[in-house]
Specification:
Blueprint (H helix, E strand, L loop, with lengths): L1 H37 L19 E7 L6 H8 L9 E7 L5 H13 L5 E5 L6 H12 L4 E4 L10 H5 L8 E10 L6 H23 L11 E4 H6 L10 H11 L3 E12 L5 H28 L5 H11 L4 H21 L10 H23 L3 H20 L1 H13 L33 H22 L5 H20 L3
Parallel strand pairs: 1-2, 1-4, 2-3, 5-7
Antiparallel strand pairs: 4-6, 5-6
C-alpha cells in the first residue's frame, strides 16, 4: 500500500516537473526571439499625422468603478493628450456606486467647457463588469480606433501620436504598449510585481510578437481597431480576463497585433497585499478560464502554424504553472521521505534536476528583461540576484492562492469581477490605511498559508535526520515565501 501511494506521488510530482520544464523551454525560445528582434531595424507603414487627411478619429475609453483616489489625476492627465480635438472623443465609462460619481461629473463638466469632447456614460447595472462597460461605450463610439486606459494609468501627452500611426497597415487590429510603474520602489511587494510585469512586457510580448505568435492586449494602455472588436465578436464578460479572450478571438480571425516595447505607459502597482491578492486571483483565474474556453480553437485552427499553436497553448497555460509549482512544493517533502525509504526509486529523483535547470533558464531569461529596463552593471547584477530570489520566494508563497484561482477557472466556477483598489501613493511618506475600498476581512486562505509555512519549516528540519540536503534551499524559499504572504496579509490591513 505504501509503495503504491509512493508511485502515485512520484507520478504526479514528475508530471508537474515536466510541465514546468516545458514552460521554461518555451520561455527560453521567447528569449531567443526577443534578442533577435532587438537587433532588427523595424520598419512599418505609418499614418502621416502632419497630413489632416490621414489623421484618424480616436475614441478614448476610461472604464472606471469607484475610483475616488485617482479620478482627478486620470482626467487631468487624459485632458493633456495632444491630438486634434475634432478627431478625439473621450468616454468615461463610469459604473461607480459611491460618492466619486458626483465629483467625476463635475470635473467632466469643467473639461467640456474647454471644448474637449468628453462624455460621462453611466449604466443602470454592471452586467459584464468591465467588458460590459466597454461594449456599451462601443455602441456609440465615434472613433474608428478605440484607446483604453484603466484608472491608474498615466499616458504621456504624445501617446496617441506614437501609437495610432501604426494602423496605416490595414491588417493591424491592436497596438499595445509596455506598462511602466509609478511606484516601483515603494516596497518589496511593488518591486517584485514590477519585476514580474517587466518580464511579461519585454520577454513574452516581444518574443511572441516577433515571430507572429499570439500575444494579448493587456486590458489597458493599448488601442483597438473598432472593426477588429466587432469582427472578433465584441467584448464578452464570461471570463475574468476579457482582454485575453478578445485578443485570441481576434488573432484567430487573422488580425495582427503590434507591440511597442519602446512606448511606456506608467501605472500604479498595488501597495498592499490584499489588493495584490485580488489582482492575482483575477488574472490567474481568468487565464485558466480562457484556456478552457479557447485552447481547442487554437489547437484545431487551420490558419496558424504548429509553433504558434505551441506558444498559444503555453501562453494560455501560464497561470496553470502556479498549480504545477504548488504540487511540486507540496509533494516534495513526501518525495524526500520516499527517496530515503525506497532505495530502488533513487533514479526518479534525478528528475529534480529539471526544476534546477528550469530555475536557471528563468534566471537567465529574466536577467535580459531586467537589464533592458533597469540597465546593466555589476552592482545592477548583484541587485538582480537578490531581487530574483526574493521574487521567486514570494511567487512560491502565492502558489496556494493562485492555484485555487486556477482550479476555479478550470472547473468553470463563476465569480464576480473584483476590481483592484487604487491608492495614488508613490512614496513611503503616504499611507494607504484610510483607503475605503480595501477588503477589511482577512483571507481564509491565510490559515492554510500559515500551515504551509510550518510544513516547509518541517521540510527543512527533515533534511537533518535524513542527512539529505538536496531540497533544503527549495524548502527554505518556500518557508520564506509563505511567511512573507502570511505576515503581510496579517499586518497590512486597512
Amino acid at each position: 500500500m505504501a509503495l503504491t501511494i509512493s508511485y502515485i506521488i512520484i507520478a504526479i510530482y514528475s508530471i508537474a516537473l515536466l510541465l514546468i520544464f516545458f514552460y521554461s523551454l518555451a520561455q527560453l525560445n521567447l528569449l531567443v526571439n526577443y534578442l533577435s528582434q532587438k537587433r532588427k531595424n523595424q520598419t512599418a507603414p505609418k499614418f502621416n499625422l502632419l497630413d489632416p487627411r490621414e489623421i484618424p478619429f480616436v475614441t478614448i475609453q476610461l472604464p472606471v468603478y469607484n475610483e475616488e483616489y485617482v479620478m482627478e489625476r486620470l482626467l487631468e492627465n487624459i485632458a493633456k493628450i495632444e491630438y486634434p480635438k475634432s478627431k478625439l472623443e473621450i468616454q468615461v465609462l463610469d459604473d461607480s456606486t459611491d460618492d466619486s460619481v458626483a465629483v467625476t461629473a463635475q470635473r467632466i463638466s469643467e473639461l467640456q467647457e474647454t471644448g474637449l469632447d468628453i462624455q460621462h456614460i453611466r449604466r443602470t447595472d454592471r452586467t459584464g463588469f468591465k467588458a460590459g462597460a466597454l461594449k456599451e461605450g462601443l455602441k456609440i463610439a465615434k472613433g474608428e480606433f478605440i484607446a483604453i486606459f484603466d484608472a491608474d494609468f498615466m499616458p504621456s501627452s504624445d501617446w496617441l501620436k506614437k501609437t495610432v500611426i501604426y494602423f496605416k497597415d490595414p491588417e493591424i487590429g491592436v497596438v499595445q504598449t509596455r506598462w511602466g510603474h509609478l511606484n516601483r520602489d515603494y516596497s518589496t511587494l511593488t518591486k517584485i510585481q514590477a519585476f514580474a510585469l517587466d518580464a511579461h512586457f519585454t520577454l513574452e510580448q516581444v518574443g511572441r510578437n516577433a515571430k507572429g505568435h499570439f500575444i494579448n492586449f493587456n486590458g489597458t494602455a493599448g488601442i483597438w481597431r473598432k472593426e477588429t472588436i466587432l469582427d472578433a465578436g465584441n467584448w464578452e464578460g464570461d471570463t475574468l480576463t476579457e482582454d485575453l479572450d478578445l485578443s485570441y478571438r481576434a488573432q484567430l480571425k487573422n488580425w495582427k497585433f503590434k507591440y511597442l516595447e519602446d512606448v511606456e505607459t506608467p501605472a500604479e502597482l498595488p501597495v498592499v497585499i490584499s489588493a495584490a491578492r485580488s489582482q492575482q486571483f483575477r488574472w490567474n483565474k481568468g487565464g485558466a478560464e480562457n484556456f478552457r474556453k479557447t485552447v481547442w480553437s487554437v489547437i484545431t485552427a487551420k490558419n496558424i502554424p504548429f509553433k504558434t499553436k505551441f506558444h498559444g497553448v503555453m501562453h494560455l497555460l501560464n497561470s496553470s504553472m502556479f498549480l504545477c509549482v504548488f504540487l511540486v512544493a507540496l509533494l516534495s517533502i513526501p518525495a524526500l521521505y520516499i527517496k530515503n525509504t525506497f532505495g530502488h526509486l533513487d533514479w526518479v529523483f534525478s528528475l529534480l534536476n529539471l526544476f534546477v535547470v528550469s530555475t536557471i533558464i528563468l534566471f537567465i531569461c529574466y536577467w535580459f528583461t531586467y537589464k533592458s529596463v533597469q540597465g546593466s552593471s555589476f552592482d545592477g547584477f548583484i541587485d538582480y540576484i537578490k531581487l530574483f530570489f526574493t521574487f521567486f520566494s514570494v511567487a512560491l508563497g502565492f502558489s496556494l492562492h493562485n492555484s485555487l484561482a486556477v482550479l476555479e477557472g478550470h472547473m468553470g466556477k463563476r465569480s464576480e469581477f473584483v476590481r483592484t483598489p487604487k491608492f495614488n501613493i508613490n512614496n513611503l511618506t503616504e499611507s494607504w490605511k484610510g483607503n475605503k475600498y480595501l477588503a477589511k476581512k482577512l483571507s481564509p486562505n491565510m490559515i492554510l498559508e500559515f500551515a504551509l509555512m510550518l510544513y516547509f519549516l518541517f521540510g527543512m528540519y527533515s533534511a537533518v535526520p535524513l542527512n539529505d540536503f538536496g531540497l533544503f534551499p527549495f524548502h527554505f524559499m518556500l518557508f520564506l515565501g509563505f511567511s512573507f504572504v502570511f505576515f503581510k496579509s496579517l499586518t497590512a490591513r486597512a
